[in-house]
Amino acid sequence: MHINPSLVSPALTVLYRAWIRSIRFDDGGRLRVITDAADTGRPVMLAIWHAELFALTGYGMRFLDGRLATVVSESRDGEIIAQVLERIGYGTARGSSTRGGLKALIGLKKHIESGRIGVITVDGPRGPRHKVKDGAVYLAQRLGALLIPVRSRPSSLHVFARSWDRFELPAPFCRCRVFFGQPIDFPEEKPTPELLAEGGRRLETAMAAALPDK
């Protein structure tokens, strides 16, 4: 059975907004790591893991309203997600690393050049878990962007242990701490396989270091 995205996305948007607004986000007052960099006119991108996108997408909706853009799959489910994201203020570029990847990067590049902050799930859409794909590093090098790791730690959550990414669903009304890693400075240059590999290793290290021990 095919579901019409236009019929379900309004209700899902209401549910998602209510769920996120019940969460008490705590970023330690460090949001300016992102906003100060973006306000200089420098291209800025945020790197997140796929497992943490539910909470961090909501954090962006709450505190960076209308300033973010991200990549969404071209699948039927992706159309529903895209409509929800657009309703909560995100710009979207359609495609993924497995389908329409180049088109998606071009679309996200246009959003960033127009002044939005790019958001990429750097191990998505199918993993391996916590292994950086080339897309984020490629785009950062093409744009000369500042790439900032962002992590989340909800106080109460359900982990979907059988999913490839161990997807995290924060509980309503929980506290969710948000952490920003050391920004990675990418000078504008033509990406090569060697530069992409080196950038990926740097980003994986920065993503791991961004989340402190409990």
Descriptive report:
The protein is 42% helix and 22% strand. It has 214 residues and is α/β, with parallel strands linked by helices. It has one domain (5-209): Glycerol-3-phosphate (1)-acyltransferase (3-Layer(aba) Sandwich). The strands form 2 sheets. Strands 1, 2, 3, 4, 5, 6, 9 and 10 form an 8-stranded mixed β-sheet that branches. The protein has a two-stranded antiparallel sheet with strand order 7-8. Helix 1 (5-21) crosses helix 3 and helix 1 packs across helix 4 (76-87).
Helix content: 40-55%
Task: Please identify which CATH superfamily we are dealing with.
Answer: Glycerol-3-phosphate (1)-acyltransferase
Under the CATH scheme, the architecture is: 3-Layer(aba) Sandwich
Q: Number of DSSP strands?
A: 10
- Which radius of gyration do the C-alpha atoms yield? 16 Å
How many DSSP helices? 7
Report mean pLDDT, rounded to a whole number: 93
List keywords for this structure.
214 residues, alpha/beta, Glycerol-3-phosphate (1)-acyltransferase, eight-stranded mixed β-sheet, two-stranded antiparallel sheet, globular
List the helices and strands and how they pair.
Blueprint: H1 5-21, E1 24-26, H2 32-39, E2 44-48, H3 53-63, E3 68-72, H4 76-87, E4 91-94, H5 101-113, E5 117-121, H6 134-143, E6 146-154, E7 157-160, E8 167-170, E9 175-180, E10 184-185, H7 193-210
Parallel strand pairs: 1-9, 2-5, 2-6, 3-4, 3-5
Antiparallel strand pairs: 6-9, 6-10, 7-8
